[in-house]
Amino acid sequence: MDEATSVDVTQKEQPPPDTSKAWGGIDLGGTKIEAVVIDGAGTVLGRTRHPTPGEGSVDEVVMAMYGAIEEAAHAAGLTPQQLAGVGVGAPGAVDANAGTLAHVSNVGRGWSEPYPVAANLGELTGGRVALGNDVQVAVAAEYRLGAGRPYRSVLGVWWGTGVGGGLVLDGVPWRGRGAAGEIGHVVVKPGGARCGCGRRGCMEAYAGRASMERKARKAVGQGEKTILFELMEKKGRPRLTSSIWDKALREEDPLATWLIDRAVRMLGAGLASAINLLDVEAIVLGGGLGTRLGSRYAERIHEAMRPHIFVPGRQPPVLMAELGDQAGAIGAALLAAPPAK
Family, per the entry (predicted)? Predict the structure, then answer.
């Protein structure tokens, strides 16, 4: 969910959809905005992807979101105004009731104060806009339509720039008082590495892609050799993307291998602790790194959990997310749609 590409619009050959049963979903990320239109069965009728305005103001980001949902709607033979509702999955501090988003550091120029995303986007679409956390809505989509379908309780883990999470407990998305699912900030080493959140020892401080890049840069400054940054320059990327980590691992780069191995160990310890507390039936692995590294690393994380599981005979599987990079946008659309019966 975290590498932008050129505009991609898909339209299927189909009869005109029932406009009372079509919903739009927007996945807002630091590098891309993904938008879809779905029907009542969750089938994608139209989709588009655009780069997020890198230096855009909040207003410009909202306009880019509207442009994306407008294009996805056109691909489905509709206008945004004909959609029954639009959902948005976004990073940062989400207040779903107020429809505001705050403390967003990696989108456009970033913003800290609450911004009325739902109201302002709703003025453009002419309808209701629902707002939710980006990872939580993606996990809800996997629960309803993807890898989580056979289960009543799942933990979703989105391994990418950071480590995000989402919970479904006995069929109900669990948000606690608004901050449930922050699996990346489970402490795996008291007093350990500094996390981007400012605290020490969080899982994300070892497994988040941004934290691993900071560690790699520090290691290079101390004289260690790696091809990570050579690959970054060749690809013309400003940061170490998931594809670069994957390539370095395939080339058996020692530093990349060590950092990823450490990440897997910390993921194993943290996820096992979550299972010991919640005893969910399955873990769904997604996110940029999770999706890129695939089932082999899902198996490795499962094995890294094993020494820490309190009831080894009931260790849940670690499954790959099935909806790919559309999970966030589909989950956002489901946020706006009526609950499944």
Answer: Belongs to the ROK (NagC/XylR) family.
